[in-house]
Design brief:
Elements lengths: L1 E11 L2 E10 L2 E6 L11 E4 L4 E4 L1 E6 L4 E2 L2 E2 L4 H10 L2 E9 L6 H12 L6 E7 L5 H12 L4 E5 L10 H14 L2 E5 L3 H13 L6 H6 L2 H18 L3 E3 L5 H12 L4 E5 L1 H5 L26 H9 L5 E2 L32 H11 L5 H15 L17 E11 L18 E11 L2 E5 L2 E2 L15 H5 L1
Parallel strand pairs: 1-4, 1-5, 6-9, 9-10, 10-11, 11-12, 12-13, 13-14, 14-15
Antiparallel strand pairs: 1-2, 2-3, 5-16, 7-8, 16-17, 17-18, 18-19
Helix pairs in contact: 3-4, 4-7, 7-8
Bound molecules: zinc ion.
């Protein structure tokens, strides 16, 4: 099967130009001006005049079917990757979970079983480590060899995912030897629990107080601490879902002194704020950790994206229905499942708020949503670029189409949207995954199980940066 995408403006991190793209089978075979006129034939031609042709977006932070707070994140690998595809995202990297007392292997096998035969587009895994001991440290080396080279640890959630500094440091020493990357959820969970308990005990139990109790200074402190530990171990470290200027300042200072520190932020920290958590229990729709911050953090985070102290934007997609799931925390914010839906809206929100909003170029937009994730997470140049030989994960993107985000029309399996009623400019028209059209003009044309596991290499780019 050969597909010719004609007359689009190809946008990559290097620049933009009008050209045709020939897809042969699963990869890009040829790029050039007027390939049709040069006698190139195809089974199908997609007219991309007036549209962008961009590499399929990559979301390196999702939680499909994550068990949390006595329930499960609602999207499966099927519904989650389908919703992602509607929004122009053709690869996700999800977090497999090691349960306390179990092996990393058991956790990884369980996630393979959830994804295989279900995902409609490609996927990889990071590994959440809940126990650091001699056995799991050995297992890390094996996972790196199997294409799962990143390990996430937490300074938050005491009693659940929390690791103490010694455990974190031991895991870092191991990745210094095996080439892996440590990803950190950096909030001081011990101190947060003190404040959260004091807050709830004094009768302030609305979801809003979840946001109030998780001080941004606790995020800054933990961010500095884990970066310092990584410097001592001599390894790169990646801060997930950075939400505040307190944490950003620590990442910037580390990078300025030459440390291998990297970080992502998420759309919710650029477009939503602590204000959204008011309005009684409705605020539960916005409960995530780290929490939404006051609006005055937004400009700092955008500056971080512009100056590359923040390398990319991922979603932390972790959807719970308002009805029946978020409601578990009625009367006690500590019991609201933490997480927001977002895998479908990231590309458009960043285009609208970033490119249309005049904050970043369209080339930087492509870098933030696709190229930087591919590089940092060992998928480049197979993914993350429009170049000959790369997987034909491509999006024909209409930068002028307006759409209104709503739970009534989104494809995520969740009963609300954090961005309900928000109009954005820019939307995906045609989405290809390894050469197959999986979304066309609002219709899903892919198939369940077509997605493949991506065996990723170590994050060399991170080490060399
Ligand atoms: Zn997460």
């Amino acid at each position: 099967m050969r597909t010719l995408i004609s007359n689009g403006t190809i946008v990559t991190t290097e620049g933009s130009s009008v050209a045709d793209v020939l897809v042969d089978g699963e990869t890009i075979a040829l790029i050039g001006a007027d390939l049709g006129g040069a006698g190139i034939t195809a089974d199908e031609t997609i007219d991309a005049s007036g549209k962008y042709v961009i590499p399929g977006a990559i979301d390196v932070h999702t939680h499909m079917e994550l068990p949390f707070g006595g329930t499960f994140a609602k999207d499966t690998f099927e519904t989650g990757t389908r919703a992602a595809a509607f929004g122009g995202t053709t690869t996700i990297v999800d977090f497999a979970v090691q349960s306390r007392g179990a092996s990393l292997r058991e956790g990884l096998d369980a996630w393979h079983a959830k994804a295989e035969g279900n995902a409609v587009a490609d996927y990889g895994f990071h590994m959440i480590m809940s126990d650091v001991n001699d056995e799991t440290l050995k297992e890390m080396d094996q996972l790196v060899a199997e294409g799962v080279p990143d390990f996430k640890l937490f300074t938050a959630y005491p009693g659940v995912f929390y690791s103490d500094d010694g455990a974190i440091f031991r895991a870092m020493q191991q990745t210094a030897k095996n080439g892996g990357l440590i990803m950190m959820h950096a909030e001081n969970g011990i101190a947060i629990d003190i404040v959260a308990n004091q807050t709830a005990d004094s009768g302030m139990t609305d979801p809003y107080y979840h946001g109030v109790a998780r001080y941004s200074i606790f995020e800054g402190e933990a961010t500095n601490r884990v970066i310092r530990l990584a410097e001592a171990a001599g390894v790169p470290v990646y801060i997930v879902h950075l939400s505040s200027r307190d944490a950003l300042n620590e990442v910037r200072a580390a990078r300025d002194r030459g440390a291998m520190a990297f970080a992502e932020t998420c759309p919710q920290y650029l477009f939503l704020s602590l204000e959204d958590m008011k309005n009684g229990f409705e605020g539960a729709k916005f409960v995530c950790s780290p929490p939404l911050r006051p609006k005055d953090h937004w400009d700092d985070l955008w500056t971080g994206l512009i100056k590359d102290d923040l390398q990319l934007v991922a979603t932390d997609h972790c959807p719970f229905d308002f009805e029946g799931q978020k409601e578990l925390g009625r009367g006690d914010f500590r019991k609201v499942p933490n997480g927001l839906p977002g895998v479908e809206d990231r590309v458009d929100l960043l285009h609208d708020g970033g490119v249309v909003g005049g904050r970043i170029t369209r080339e930087r937009w492509v870098e933030l949503i696709s190229t930087a994730p591919a590089r940092l997470f060992g998928m480049y140049p197979r993914k993350g670029t429009v170049s000959v030989g790369a997987d034909a994960d491509l999006v024909v993107y209409d930068p002028n189409r307006r759409r209104t985000i709503s739970a009534g029309t989104h494809h995520m399996d969740v009963d609300y949207s954090c961005y309900e009623g928000r109009e954005v400019r820019g939307a995906s028209d045609v989405v290809l995954s390894r050469g197959s059209v999986i979304v066309r003009n609002g219709e899903f044309t892919g198939k369940k199980g077509a997605g493949r596991f991506i065996k990723r290499s170590t994050a060399d780019a991170a080490r060399l940066a």
